[in-house]
Write a structure and sequence with these properties.
By secondary structure, the protein is α/β, with parallel strands linked by helices. The chain has helices at about 35-45, 65-80, 95-105, 120-130, 145-150, 155-170, 195-200, 215-230, 235, 250-255, 260-265, 275-295, 310-315, 330, 340-350, 355-370, 375-385, 395-405, 425-430, 435-445; strands at about 5-10, 20-25, 50-55, 90, 110-115, 135-140. The chain contains 20 helices and six strands.
Length: about 450
């Protein structure tokens, strides 16, 4: 594999124990550069290899919905690793239990997943400071490693796109695989999903969805998309009444499937060039732009993360009259005068997803209905992260800041409340799809 995917994040002295892959963001065995690098190092040193997952008892407001999806996917990871003679250790007290685990095993090396989120950076800093061995970080979540794609925060997709285009040919074909490991390691204690879920002090008011988790489900979803929907993706993707989207978002978020694998399968399909390019723009450019923003901007989930021009225009219009102001509780319950918005919110609450095109309108209405843009961002992050299967993700944070404050966009015509931030109207949505039919369908479903 191309070693520019790997960063030396801590020097140290190798212990006498195994190589440890600290799995976090990329929850899979297949097509996982971090796991493959960890095994290559273990083979070079003739050491055992073990995978550890530090399950945090609470994580940015995650509920039973997200924990259930993740743990059921990790159950499949454990099975896949077992077939390769690699033990999987589920540690249930977050970074604290990982530190104890590493002190006990005295690893030769710790390999980490790349993650741009603030809390993950803090965890890594704490763990690294508590161990003596070297640490390496591997970006298995982006096709072009984030720090290779650009050394700075990019202004927009148009500035990152040419950089990715120059580099993607180097990284796209590189998919190393893991083999059965010849050096046995310490056996991992058994665990089961029901017991772990029952022990967690989490919000159980958001029930799990019927979306199947894990690698196999992600691969089946990809195959179904390519076989039945990819060819019509350019014209269907913005119509929520046609199931035209890929459905891959939760699998990409939890790392059940590699974006590199998705891109290769799409490229190798018989669909038209237009269909492939339209989808790959979102999979590659837009996804990796989100990681770029969160990696280089520590205010990625706050009002302060907005570009200066949008903060200036929003503040200019901060005192503009608003027809309706709703409480967070009214928004969460979908109790507004806009039945289309209520239908979107209902779909989010009941199904754990919202059509990507609708998310923009959903977020922009919350700006209209909140006292300040700052409060709108806070409410949107809370609602998104509580109900979306793919919450707490760079794509979500960037999507919210784009909607409320024009991140990665440009100024448009000035108007009330929005200033020069791009506006979306219900009439505009009605030109893309039958908005009345969507509202009727989803409000009815929520009442059944």
């Amino acid at each position: 594999m191309d070693l520019s995917r790997v960063r030396d994040v801590k020097q140290g002295t190798a212990g006498e124990g195994p190589v440890i892959y600290w799995m976090s963001r990329d929850q899979r065995c297949r097509d996982n550069h971090a796991l493959a690098f960890a095994q290559a190092e273990a083979l070079r040193m003739h050491r055992p290899l073990a995978v550890a997952f530090a399950l945090s008892p609470s994580f940015l407001g995650a509920t039973l919905r997200q924990y259930g999806f993740m743990l059921r996917g990790l159950e499949e990871v454990e099975q896949d690793l077992s077939a390769l003679d690699i033990p999987f250790h589920l540690l249930t007290e977050g970074p604290r239990s990982l530190i104890s685990f590493l002190r006990e095993l005295r690893p030769a090396l710790v390999v980490e997943d790349f993650d741009p989120l603030r809390i993950k950076k803090e965890w890594k800093h704490t763990v690294r400071a508590s161990t003596a061995c070297p640490h390496r970080e591997v970006d298995a979540h982006n096709i072009v490693p984030c720090w290779v794609a650009s050394p700075k925060q990019e202004w927009a997709a148009r500035t990152l796109r040419p950089k990715l285009a120059r580099l993607i040919g180097m990284f796209l074909p590189d998919l190393p695989q893991v083999i059965p490991h010849p050096y046995p390691g310490k056996e991992a204690p058994a665990w089961d999903v029901s017991s772990i879920l029952g022990s967690l002090d989490i919000d159980r008011g958001v029930r799990e969805t019927d979306v199947r988790p894990g690698r196999k489900a992600g691969e089946m979803t990809l195959r179904a998309f390519i076989d039945h929907r990819l060819e019509h993706y350019p014209e269907d993707r913005n119509d929520p009444l046609r199931y035209g989207q890929s459905g891959l978002s939760p699998y990409l978020h939890f790392g059940n499937i590699s974006p590199q694998r998705v891109a290769l399968e799409v490229q190798g399909s018989s669909s038209s060039t237009d269909a492939k390019e339209t989808f790959l723009e979102e999979l590659v450019v837009r996804r990796e732009l989100s990681d770029n923003f969160c990696f280089y901007n520590p205010e990625y989930d706050r009002y302060e993360g907005l570009p200066e021009w949008s903060r200036r225009t929003l503040e200019k219009h901060a005192m503009d009259p608003r027809e309706d102001l709703y409480s967070l509780q009214e928004l969460e319950a979908g109790e507004t005068t806009d039945d289309l918005w209520n239908a979107m919110q209902n779909e989010l609450v009941t199904q754990g997803r919202m059509h990507g095109y609708l998310r923009m309108y959903w977020a922009k209405k919350v700006l209209e209905w909140s006292p300040t843009p700052r409060q709108a961002i806070e409410r949107l992050i809370l609602l998104n992260d509580r109900y979306e299967l793919d919450g707490r993700d760079p794509n979500g944070y960037v999507g919210i800041l784009w909607s409320v404050g024009g991140l990665h966009d440009r100024p448009w015509k000035e108007r009330n409340i929005f200033g020069t931030v791009r506006y979306m109207s219900r009439a505009g949505l009605g030109r893309k799809f039958d908005a009345e039919a969507f509202a009727h369908r989803n409000l009815r479903a929520g009442n059944e």
